[in-house]
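Wed. Picked up where I left off yesterday with VacJ family lipoprotein. The coffee machine is broken again, so keeping this brief.
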Amino acid sequence: MTRFRTSVVLAAGAMTLAGCATVTNPNAADPIEGFNRSMYTFNDTLDKAVLVPVAKGYRYAVPDPARDMVTNFFSNVGDVYNFANNLLQLEITAAAQDLMRLTINTFFGVGGLFDFATPAGLPKHSQDFGVTLGKWGLPDGPYLVLPLLGPSTVRDTVGMAGNMVIDPTSYIRPDWVSYSLFGVRLVNTRANLLDASSLLEAAALDPYSFTRDAYLARRKYLINGGASGDATLPNYEDEGDAAGAAGAAGGKQQPMPATPASGASAPAPAPASGAQGESEVPQGSPVPGKLVPGGLPFHR
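Structure written out below (tokens, as returned):
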């Protein structure tokens, strides 16, 4: 409840600022761009002032093997999302793969601390309830930047309710344990993405537009069939990946991979630091995922 009240207050403040924003190149998918840019700026400022310093301290203090185990643990939790949503979409093959990943990594990987499923050839999927709603035919609606949560759409915002129901960590008691897991997940995800956000800031002429277009393209790709693909976290410390990300941010965007047939795997970059890949987070839920400036990593 405290988090909800805080978000409402922040949203009201951002609405006040929205009138100051100007839109020079209107986008049909972003009819409230003035508000969204103001919210993006607010989120990005908060991220740089609070979360980035904490994430850097965490990255400095916690050795790579330990951070890999934390990443693997929450990625294993993310497979619960993948399994549930693949079932809802009647993607039986993908759901069976998710269930096998959960079983192998939970029992043989000590609760998910180690990833044995990926070397065994089981792909990491990328699912959330917003994708499920899209596959059921619900239109995405206008692009929307949420306070703290970052990029979304009206459909993905509605999907948050389903994400929270599916999230197994929300049922952990006592509450302080659930909140502690939320905090660790948030900081660990931000630490994993420090290099990615630095590249975007350095290379993109307009980080807001780049973030919006990349988010919408990614969601369209997932809904049109890409959700069955591998969803590993890129290794931004690798020279090749860094060059590719910088090139895309500089305006030479790479084309989205061709949509695979149902159940087929899409190519993806190698996972960072040996940790199993993080799939894109369900919007509005405290799970690890892609973070871009303008939104804190409350998503997979």
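Quick read: The chain has one domain: 2-274.
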